[in-house]
Amino acid sequence: MKTAAKRCRVILNPAARGEKAGRISLGHFPESCRVEVVLSRAAGHATELARKAVEEGLELVVAAGGDGTVNEVANGIAGSGAVLGILPLGSVNVLARELGIPRHMDRAWKVVADGRARSIDLGKMTCGPGNSRKTRYFTQLAGAGLDARAVQRVTRAQKRIWGPLSYVFAGLKVAAENSPPVRVELDGRPAIEGACVIFGNGRFYGGPFAILKRARIDDGWLDTCIFQKQGYWNLLHYLQGVLRRTHTRFEDVSYAKARNARVTADAEIPIEVDGEMLGFLPAEVEIIPLGLKVMVPLE
Which of 48, 53, 136, 213 has the greatest CB tally within 10 Å of its CB? Predict the structure, then answer.
């Protein structure tokens, strides 16, 4: 007896990877999926489309785009029980890399159609002062300080051309700029100051860089890496440590696991989640254990 086709909605960012996006919207989909394609038109639209899909009873919602699109769709379905599918069309695709989802579109479609649903943790960031506070989930990482200032500088064109290296180049530009330190309190412990803090649900940052190398995406912990010193030469020192995966041994790098964190500063310090700007400090961060289901390869 033939199994009924699985109904899913693909939320496509038409700006992602140009020709690849066109092939997704016009391509051949597996017979095991009954596919509807809708286009996101602006920042935040993919979240609205994902919420609408959940309201209509769809159990599988697919993000076709980069890490920003994946983040928006995850925010639209978080807490609903719906499953996230990923077609990695971006220049970096950090969560897809973390979960072993192939970049080749036919193989990625096979994961969406015939893979297995895996529960992973979700990070949750709440930031800003008073009545202007914002809350957003993140699937992979979040950061404040130098890292977020670099994200502010990276354009879509630069990401298309340079991929993960675009964040390195931007980081080198902002490294020479003096900025007040961020203060990070983990699980209520005394604060640690630094130029930059990165919170991770998974290992990778900006592509292949395993900054949070001890992170496990379903362990119920928030991995935290604080780079304490500012300046161009310190950043180069940290970069070579990251590339060699020795940075956690440095005396001026703090690495720890926590359930929640609070981050403050004495100036307007930016925050990013999954490579997209969110707002400014102060912020609270927490982990939501197994808060999202994602389609992953069978093996």
Answer: 53
Question: What is the Cβ-side half-sphere exposure of residue 252, based on CA atoms within 13 angstroms?
Answer: 13
Q: What is d(CA 147, CA 156) in angstroms, rounded to the nearest whole number?
A: 17
Q: What ranges in 100-228 are assigned the alpha helix state H? A: 105-114, 146-153, 156-162, 165-175
In CATH terms, the fold of domain 6-114 is Rossmann fold (3.40.50)
Instruction: Among 2.130.10.10, 2.60.200.40, 1.10.10.10, 2.10.109.10, name the CATH number for the domain at 122-290.
Output: 2.60.200.40
Give the percent of the chain with pLDDT over 70: 90
> Is the pLDDT confidence value at 115 over 80?
yes
All CATH 2.60.200.40 domain ranges of the chain, comma separated, are: 122-290
272: nearest Cα among 212, 197, 210: 197
Question: Before 289, cis peptide (omega within 30)?
Answer: no
Are 63 and 74 a contacting pair, CB within 8 Å?
yes
pLDDT at 112 over 80: yes
Do strands 270-273 and 141-145 pair parallel, antiparallel, or not at all (unpaired)?
A: antiparallel
Nearest alpha carbon to residue 211 among 255, 251, 252 = 255
Cα–Cα distances in angstroms (integers) from residue 103 to residues 49, 81, 106, in the given order = 24, 25, 9
What tokens does 262 get? Answer: 């609070």
pTM listed for this prediction: 0.88
Residue ranges, comma separated, of all CATH 3.40.50.10330 domains in the chain are 6-114
> In the structure, what pLDDT confidence band is assigned to residue 22 with cuts at 50, 70 and 90?
low
